[in-house]
Amino acid sequence: MKKGRIILISVAVVIIVVVLITGGKMYMDNKKEVEKLEAEKQSVELLKKKFSNIKEVKIESTGYNRMTGFYRMVVKMTNEEGKAVSFDYGFVKNRNKISDYGVEDREVQKKGVTTNKVKIIYSNGTEEEI
Asked: pTM, whole model, 2 decimals?
């Protein structure tokens, strides 16, 4: 009788530990995804302050360096005339600053400010207007 209870308690403890580890991993993965999407949105808000006539920004990929807090984003930016350009830029979230960006097409990447709403397509496929 005692051996049966010990085995039952041991199995229950193992199941609880596995559930806690799995739940913790899922929580941390979700937290990282939320932080990445916040950085993507924040960086597009800064792009609106750098370039004029932006209609849409599609974020094709985002990389993050934990040591420096530096994001590297590759985007496809479309202007009001329907012309598009793909380029990458660096973003530091805690400084709220775009550190550098590649100029690929000066017709599309016109310096200025975009005051209208811009459609964002995030790296995970979700969309929003800001």
From this structure: 0.80
